[in-house]
Amino acid sequence: MTSAALRSRAWKMLEMVTTPLLPSDYLDLVSPLRAGADLRGRIEAVHPETRDAATIVIRPGRGWRGHTAGQYVRVGVDVDGVRLWRAYSLTSPTHRQDGRVSITVKAIPGGKVSNHLVRRAKPGTLIQLDQATGDFVLPAAKPAKVLYLTAGSGITPVMGMLRDTEFDDVVMVHSAPQPQDVIFRDDLHRLVADKKLRLTELHTDTDGMLDISRLDELVPDWAERETWACGPAGLLDAAEEHWTAHGVRERLHTERFRPSIVAVGDGGEVTFSTTGKTADADGATPLLDVGEEAGVLMPSGCRMGICFGCVTPLKAGAVRDLRTGEITEAEPGVLIQTCVSAAAGPCDIER
Amino acid sequence: MTAIDPTAHLTAEQIEELGRELDAIRDEVLADRGEKDAAYIRKVISAQRKLELVSRGVLLFSIFPPAWLIGTAGLSVAKIMDNMEIGHNILHGQWDWMRDPKIHSTTWEWDHVSPADQWKHSHNELHHTYTNVIGKDNDLGYGIMRVDEDQRWHPFHLGQPLWNFINACFFEYGIAAYDLELGKNLHKRRRKNPEFRARARAVGRKIRKQVLKDYVIHPLLSGPSFLTTLAATFTANLVRNLWTHSVIMCGHFPEGVQVFERRSIKGETRGQWYLRQMMGSANISGSKAMHFMTGNLSHQIEHHLFPDLPSNRYAEVAVKVRALFEKYELEYVTGPLPKQVFSAWHKVFRLSLPNKKPKVETPDREQELVAA
């Protein structure tokens, strides 16, 4: 018998000992970061960067497979007891000696997770992790000349790149409202002092937004450079247009942070994605009724919100609890009670 | 329906107002639900797991009587915690709001021979929706007992104190059979129903796993303590069964709790539904430890009004609910455990004998008897 087969047999035996729980339910009590556990991380430090941004240093579990500079990671954080998932760029170099990684988070107004991480996160807290992902990364072959075009928290994936790989000729154009809003300002200026980076820092509160046509003046050889751009949609749209107009679109790599913009309203089109059916729903009809009316086999129970027999994943959009008026927006892992929820805008129900 | 309706003095408007006041109590807790509650359930789950681990560890040496006593007591408490404060409440969806897939009504499995999904159907859906409605809520007597004067007497009921005692000892098996609706489904025609057979197989699998763990694997691991570990696990299961049965009897059986007829819930409003929950449930008074060990089902009235509120909030909710009972001049049935258990058993004995039919019968009831 192979060792893998032996291990799986031993594990089966162990499951018989712990049933109806799993051995991992007990192991998680003592060693939540061990190999084989669901991927988690422990916050080990929180370093303020600006008045509304902080770097969170995380010790990932043994199952962490590492990352490539420029990638992001999804983290699941318990805020007021509710687990919420968000994606943040990794800002640590890829092979830190101590095996830790860091994300840098900017608190956005009204942002539950970002404000929690920047202002309230405590070292020692466990968070959930996914493996790093994203293709906003450096190529295997080193380009001769590099341009980083960033704005606001768009600096974060690029900082991961800067810390990871040194290039001979690197230029960065970075925009932020004021000097004190520039995340990693000290690090950037240190790189400039060491002649490892040429930096153009724009302060939009005084200088106004970057006009992409000014790029000729700021970085005359921009069209020859392999460019990585990250920032608000306006900047990226303008950059894509500019690079395309000059026939060098293939040199531009962009990363868009896509905060899911959910249209919240009264009723909307409901998609039942498993069966491929759609139906129009008003803001007062329970989604259970909408689904049944559309011929979708919906799990159901008490039909009054008490038995939890109808809970179903909400894949996209928003729903309103008909009892409390509370809005729930789609996020991975969000389940809703279809018997007391109505469409609050277009939504996608996994049935 | 008992001859005198204890809610007769309420107008329709008052009942709806009562419903609104209860909704307000619920909303208050929802608005305040958060980190502390999440920390509470995590702490309870972690404590239960540690207690079970340590108890099973001690039982490896149960050949020594003190180890047997400590291990058995610990395991009994661990099993009670698993079923009551943790399992029952998680399976009600009380903790779904945390969005933690490991503490969720759709993924939780408990130390019980009835698979969680089957229990959720018969308990959450049938019992909680149709609380105390004769013919709809089979928790009323579990199909083996007569619990109201209006139910027809049959000589079979003479033995109900004995049935109830046997049910108490093997309560988890009773519940599994009940969730399978075994009585109804063992009829020749229904036995072959593929859906029933699949559910029966699921119960069989669960029983096999539970029995294997408790009565084979753990005793075997104990080596020379095989027999004493076996006896300890049997005892812990017995203690858990007797305890949960007692707590659950206190929820709806004590004297003063109302039952309802099928016709009475047609077109029921939210206020009327709330009122039925209030009149159909009974509490157990006692210390914090008492509430904890019953999984807060000592606050059965509050649990039936708000089955999906986190159990650790029932105590504070109870103060407000009780004030509403007083305001609307309704009887809040409660008492210490021994009194409530005695009351419930007294009813089981009393109704094992036939009684005179109440003189005044509503036309509804007669029609229903004819229809039945």
UniProtKB/TrEMBL annotation, chain A:
Cofactor(s) in the UniProt record: FAD
Residues annotated as domain FAD-binding FR-type: 36-139
Keyword field contains Cell cycle: no
Keywords annotated in UniProt: 2Fe-2S, FAD, Flavoprotein, Iron, Iron-sulfur, Metal-binding, Oxidoreductase
InterPro entries: 2Fe-2S_ferredoxin-like_sf, 2Fe-2S_ferredoxin-type, Beta-grasp_dom_sf, Cbr1-like_FAD-bd_dom, FAD-bd_FR_type, FNR_nucleotide-bd, MRET, OxRdtase_FAD/NAD-bd
SUPFAM superfamilies, A to Z: 2Fe-2S ferredoxin-like, Ferredoxin reductase-like, C-terminal NADP-linked domain, Riboflavin synthase domain-like
Residues in 2Fe-2S ferredoxin-type domain copies: 268-351
PANTHER family on file: NADH OXIDOREDUCTASE HCR (PTHR47354)
Protein name as catalogued: Ferredoxin reductase
Organism: Streptomyces akebiae
Automatic annotation (TrEMBL), chain B:
InterPro entries, per database record: FA_desaturase_dom (IPR005804), Fatty_acid_desaturase (IPR012171)
Pfam annotation, one family: FA_desaturase
Domain Fatty acid desaturase, first and last residues per copy: 67-334
CDD domains attached to this UniProt entry: Delta6-FADS-like (cd03506)
Protein name: Acyl-CoA desaturase
Organism: Streptomyces akebiae
